[in-house]
Structures
1.
Amino acid sequence: MNADPTHLPQILPTKPAPSAATRRDRAQGRLVWLLLGLTLVPALAGMVRLFSLATGVSLLPGSERFFAAPVPVTIHIIGSLLFLGGGAFQFVDALRRRYPRWHKMGGRVFVGAGLASALSGLWMNQFYALPAHDGVALYLMRLAFGAGMAALLLAGLVRAMQRRFPAHRGHMLRSYAIGMGAGTQVLTTIPLAMLGLADEPGPRAVAMGAGWIINLLVVELILRRHQRRPAPVGAMA
């Protein structure tokens, strides 16, 4: 007599499907690695430039213009490294839920490093001699995006103090998108090098501006998706 297969006991346990929160946490974990990968080239360039400032040996084109006043560029590089590297972990929901105190302490470093990066970048844009391939359009864009990054960081800090966490999250994400422009610009300027247009001010300004705009568009898409789902219990921003 054949046994009814529907009444046979389960021999192997079935693995439950991951929840939506688990899938979201895994996706955010992959995003962290992507962001760290985007910062790799600017981080290496920054460390080489710090070495040049310490030794007086120019290893990158244009480093000589920093030798007379090394403090602003040093602040900019260190602030950017802390802002972009540490900031990648500030937006992971699982870390904020499990370690809220870490998120608050890391947030203070994030804001301080971001302001140091933005304000020193504005000083550099205004007072260092601009390279020949950086025209007026790129000067104005750096002025606008640098000021915008600083303003968003301060607005995000105020929103956190007011416990308006959705607005806080939005401001911080947008400021990070501007800071991460240095990473995306590595990709947007590759076609210029391939076409022999890397030293042309007009195409360079378009490629550099595209890096900032792409990042901000991605952030707006993320924020729209986040608004359409309920916030997880205990999430801060």
2.
Amino acid sequence: MKQYNNSKGNSFYAIGLSYKKADAKIRGRFSLDITSKSTLLNQAKEKNIESLLVTSTCNRTEIYGFAQHPFQLIKLLCDNTNGTIDEFQKVAYVYKNKEAISHMFRVGSGLDSQILGDFEIISQLKISAKTSKKHGLLNAFLERLINSVIQASKRIKTETKISSGATSVSFASVQYIFKNVKDISEKNILLFGTGKIGRNTCENLVKHTKNEKITLINRTKHRAERIAGKFNLVVKDYANLQEEINMSDVLIVATGAQNPTIDKQIIQTNKPLLILDLSIPKNVNENVEELKSVTLVHLDDLSQITDEALEKRKKHIPHAEVIIEEVKNEFNSWLEARKFAPTIKALKHKLLDFKTTELELQRKKLSNFNEEQAELISNNIIQKITNHFAHHLKSDDASADESLELIKKVFQLETSTNV
């Protein structure tokens, strides 16, 4: 039995919702921006939650952490988003201990991504871990786990072809544009917002279309200019949004707004306009579809695009799963060793007490007592005894839990276990 529970008797949970059961509208209600994430972490600290990691992307919102009951984590999520507990229960998942660990491995390795092999999530998990650490909410267990997931992700990326070719929503966006817009290199493309998927889509468009008519607008102009500099794009003021939309053939919306920023009122053109809404929550009002000239495509529609490459990637799932099992076993071995550590430490202290008492006795009895030699011999014997016990506990054929209890009983040890 692995030591999933920490010193306070809490279990390790993964709670959340994803594209699998929650549509874009519901995911939007549970999305967390930087401010709400920080508030959530502060509240967790106030409630004496020892360790917690929170991530929120366009495809999922999740909390990994220690709690006596998963409701503690669910409440934290609902208190900091627009989602309710009733809505959460309809679409959510709750994993405990080893299932929670397995879930994080699958998520971080791209096997649970909306587009198989999309590794963007691992960078999100890294950022989340750094944020938790700054808040003092990343204990040894969670830090080791996230590092193991990163290791598995790297190995899958290099040892399999599950991410061969571009495997993200941004690539699916570009695929869709190529298939549905003729002469794309000659069309006017407008990117509104600087969300990560929008930036990646823009980069793919620049690479593959050789289009020199890509314009970028963001509410904060200096951010737009910084991104435009990388890709040689034209930047326009937010005040010019309506004018630029009416000149565009393709509009890509990737803002972080909580409410729609585009609706049919600002579209005053009759020429065909393809709108890709790559935002969670949705940033384009569905009323634009009332305009005959407009085609609206959302993130979830794009992720359903399957191609030959995606089918090829599926063949690499078994290899990826083998890698996950290998790294997960290493993590579990480390976890098992941590389970033994307090007992071995307590045993060593007990033997050192024996040594101190015995040396004190011999010092009084023997006039020519060699203190230095006695210390050296005693310490060597203690080290050998503790090493033997540690080796026994770690061996596969040993009944570790029974052995631990026996050692504690024989030596009358008091131990504290910390995850």
3.
Amino acid sequence: MKITVPPGTANIVIGFSDCALKERLSAKLCAAYGRWLGGFRTLELRDGRVRKGFEIAALGGGRAVLASRELVSPVAFNKYGVDLGALEATALPALEAAAAGGRVLLFDELGPMALLSAKFSARAVELLFSGRPCVVFYRRGAKTFEDAFSRMRDTVIIELSRESWAEAVTAAQTFLDTTVPLMENH
């Protein structure tokens, strides 16, 4: 499968179902392009082979538990209690700072838990359409975000899988390699 990133691409949107692959690609992009990226990562909290929850990590500092089996919350997703305040107090300020600082916005990840916060979802959609270049990872099933992605102009949508790994890496790197020099000229 050949993924092309035409000149003028404004956004890369990466759909996934395998968290480990998503985390691997996100870490690779942050390591290579961290100076030009701003936003947040969503990381699995694990105890050996058992997933205990998820953590939000703002690029540039700040972490908070987003969801955990041990978290008592009026908001839940599957077997996890969800702390919407962690999402709103960690991920949103990181995205706002990245937008104000002229960075490529990294949304890692948009999915069903992000949709639980109307405040976060509304602002995320606004930022997606703000004209800032974006790298977005999303989990299938977040209909609001999937609909937004399909309406975004100049956007390449990639399905991340073991079979598409090399092509997805190349496409994301091509996007960032062409976007970063444009940002440095402004």
